[in-house]
Amino acid sequence: MSRPIISLGGKVLGERDEHSLFIVVEGLDGSGKTTQGTLIAEELQKKGYEVVITKEPTATSAVAQKIADALAKKIKVEPKELQELFTKDRETHVNELVLPALKKGKIVVSDRYAFSTFAYGSLHHDEAWLKQLNGRFPLPDLTLFIDVTPDECLQRIGHRGEPQELFEEKKKLESIRNAYLKVAKEFSLHFKVIDGSGSIEETHAKSMLEVNRLIS
């Protein structure tokens, strides 16, 4: 049995296995989203599901290194070009990994996806342009936004002892968080806000509650 793959723009892209799921974990830098995505994938694997865990931006596309250098502030890339690079990277990611996995009935858990472009891209670009740029990509079955205040995120980033990346500034993160919350309302049927201010275990429990609701 199969069911349709619906795009972010509302169009049918093709068919997928009826048992497949596409789950995305979003959040500000330092929110703990990567940890939560890993924990979700591991728990689903323990339950017997075939899970593909992945992330954006990827490390393997033709533009991946340029994105990494731009985020690390090793090179300067104009905001419009940066969003176009993210989209090119996403196209490779979707076509070579996400869609094939969904067609085989697997669960895909991705650390970041198109909603990162909507939120981070909103610092410099019109919402309509960002949506047009990404409208052809599949809509996730569930997106979890791990909501942590910018102050807490920056504190966590500081504890890593790593240089701050391009978007890791308080004012930028405040604006990005507001953009995420706006997206959460727009895509409310598929987008859940998770309070990430507690412990890793507490946040995981809240996240799995939404994942289990989706599966059931």
Please describe what this structure looks like.
By secondary structure, the protein is of the alpha/beta class. It is globular. It has a five-stranded parallel beta sheet, sandwiched between helices. Strand 1 (2-6) and strand 2 (12-17) form a beta hairpin. It has eight helices and seven strands.
Provide tags for this entry.
single chain, 216 residues, five-stranded parallel beta sheet, two-stranded antiparallel sheet, 7 strands, globular
Describe what is shown at a glance.
This protein is an alpha/beta fold and 216 residues long.
The fraction of residues in strands falls at 15-25%
Overall average pLDDT: 93
H/E series: EEEHEHHEHHEHHEH
Taking the sheet with the most strands, its summary is: 5 strands, parallel
- Summing up helix and strand content along with how strands pair, one would put the structural category as alpha/beta
| Major β-sheet strand ordering | 4-5-3-6-7
The global form is globular
- Total number of strands: 7
Q: Which segments are poorly predicted (pLDDT under 50) over 5 or more consecutive residues?
A: none
Distance between the termini: 18 Å
Total of helices:
8
Share of helical residues: 40-55%
What gyration radius follows from the Cα positions, in whole Å? 17 Å
Outline the fold blueprint.
Elements: E1 2-6, E2 12-17, E3 21-27, H1 33-46, E4 51-55, H2 64-71, H3 79-103, E5 107-111, H4 114-121, H5 127-134, E6 142-147, H6 150-160, H7 170-186, E7 191-195, H8 200-215
Parallel strand pairs: 3-5, 3-6, 4-5, 6-7
Antiparallel strand pairs: 1-2
Helix pairs in contact: 1-8, 2-3, 4-5, 4-7
